[in-house]
Design goal:
Blueprint: E1 6-15, E2 25-33, E3 38-43, H1 47-53, H2 59-74, H3 87-95, E4 102-104, E5 108-112, H4 115-126
Antiparallel strand pairs: 1-2, 1-4, 1-5, 2-3
Length: 128
C-alpha cells in the first residue's frame, strides 16, 4: 500500500452473450496502477442472474474466461505467452476489445493510495 495516491486505470469486464443485442452484465473489474506495480482482477459470477439474462449461456465458459484473466494478471502459466510480458502489456491485452462472451468496457481512471481496496470497492459498486 502506498502512502500517497497514485493514478490507476481500470476496465469493467462484461458478459456479452449476444453482441448483436448490445446487452451485457458486469462480471468483473481489472485495475492497473503502474506506480504501484499493481495489476489484478476481482470478479463475481451470479449464475442465476446470467441464466435469466441469457438462457442457455454456458456460465462455465464465462468463469473459464475470468480465470484466464486471473492468470494474465498474475503472470502465471495459465496466461501462456502473456505471462512473460510487462504489467503494462498485460493490461493492454486485457483492455483490448474482442468479440468473445467476455469483453472489456471503456478504460476509466482515478487515484488511490490502496489499489487492492480500490479494486474491491469498484467490484462492489460496479458488479455486485
Amino acid at each position: 500500500m502506498s502512502t500517497h495516491p497514485d493514478p490507476y486505470q481500470y476496465v469493467v469486464l462484461r458478459c456479452v452473450p449476444r453482441p448483436d443485442r448490445e446487452e451485457f452484465v458486469n462480471v468483473g473489474v481489472v485495475l492497473y496502477c503502474q506506480a504501484a506495480a499493481f495489476l489484478d482482477v476481482a470478479w463475481q459470477v451470479d449464475s442465476d442472474r446470467l441464466h435469466v439474462f441469457a438462457p442457455g449461456l454456458d456460465v462455465d465458459r464465462v468463469r473459464d474466461a475470468l480465470r484466464f484473466v486471473d492468470g494474465v494478471c498474475a503472470g502465471d502459466a495459465r496466461a501462456g505467452a502473456a505471462a512473460v510480458q510487462s504489467l503494462t502489456q498485460r493490461f493492454g491485452l486485457l483492455k483490448a476489445p474482442r468479440s468473445t462472451v467476455l469483453q472489456p468496457g471503456p478504460v476509466h481512471g482515478g487515484v488511490t493510495a490502496d489499489c487492492a481496496a480500490e479494486l474491491s470497492g469498484l467490484l462492489d459498486r460496479l458488479v455486485r
